[in-house]
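On to our target:
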Amino acid sequence: MVQYLDNNSGFSQWSSMQTQKKPSRLSGLFWWVILFLFAWWIIGVWFKPNNTEIVANTPVSVEQSNVAKQNIVNEDISFDVSGLRVSNVSLNKHKQNSKSDEHVSLLNGENNFIEMGFVSSDIKTPNINTQWKSDTDVMKWNNGSNVDFIRKISVDGYVITIADTIKNNSGNEISLAPYVNMVVSSDNQTSSVVETGGVVYANSKLDYTNWNKLNKKSVAYSTVHGSLGFAEQYWETIASIDSPDQTISLKKSGDLYFAQTNAAPIKIAPKSENTINTYVFTGPRESGILNAAANKIPGIEKTMDYGWFWFFAQPMLWMINWLNALVGNYGIAIILMTLILRVLIWPLTRKSYVSTMKMQRMQPELQRVQKLYANDKARLQVEMMRVYQTHKTSPMSGCLPMLIQIPIFFALYKALLISVPMRSAHFLWISDLAVMDPYLILPILMGATMWLQQYLQTPKTSNNPNDPMATTQRVMKWMPVLFTVMFAWMPAGLVLYWTVSNLFGIFQMYVIKKTVK
């Protein structure tokens, strides 16, 4: 990236003439892109789902249930059921980290649970201490007024289905409303890169309220067929009641965060029954898994946070996963993807290199014009403009590959941070490509390749302190050092991409110099 800003291209001389030069098409395109991104951001803020501060809300009891726990296990998850509550979810296919044998756990610890029950002004409903009669995955309870509650729990992948059948054996119509209360501890931190915190899908739109915002205010929604929950960087717990007309709220109270939803009351005629399904997803934020869960939980597939450059991040993440399935290593997959991307933009980069080579050959003529008209600034600008027009080039032509690589860079950064398989991916000495290189070997290699690329492209200049080219080049020599320090804290997979890209750029420059006259 530094090579395109180098003073070899005559950028400093060219920029001094912009007051008189007609804007180029490329510069116009650049500003249109900036305006488009700004408008996109404004639209995203303007059309967020409506939410209001909660004036009052039904308190959620965090009292510990005295109902005995039973553990339910399938291939993907295991969890505890204690009456109305589900807790201690273990993700059987995911470890805490590459050096741990413990599985990732959600809703784990005291006051972390999800509770699914009913409220009614007509009949007595089960509470957190209700003693059910259990038979494997089926629980039964009679309220003493000829109303039976039968709860059946099943698991499909990472989705827990709670099917509640209410049999009204009495002679009166009854009415009851299902609810879901989710409680998590407040030891979570807001991420500046990936959307985390409260998640609500309401009125066909997804809305995030990060932990910091929840610390300051509560929010509420009214929707039809919505979902709610909490999301971390790699994991999330989302619930949905299969019932229309719901009110959803998020808030913090004390040291706990609460996500609540109440569905509209359901009427059950005498001598009849009704079944209400509640779905709970507890698992990784992976597109394939979330898409499968979307059949039961509306909007959950949209919780995959690809960021602003989703149109790059989504296919890049798909490509990395596909290449990993092909070669069996995410590090090699990143290298192959880098090479593919650089080959795709080869024509643009070739044009940029050719333009840079032209401007390097222009330097003696530009320096002659500078000396000749040093005391006539207006004439100097005119003559320098004439030199650029004669050679049919512009410094901005060397910036296009850089502008293309900027969204690719940020898209890959986002893809690495949201990729669950990447968090424990090994490559050579690196045990996790989603975090920084612990030995700083890759950042040093990246800085060295950047310096070499810059050195090979930079011609010698005078030592005249008044020469703006020489001054700029002396400053640019420190860019590899600055980038090395900056990249030292970034995910190793991202630094690997930039290092391979630099090496490819050096190879490409060598080929172009040999083939272009």
In short: Residues 24 and 396 are 9 Å apart (CA to CA). The chain has a mean pLDDT of 80.
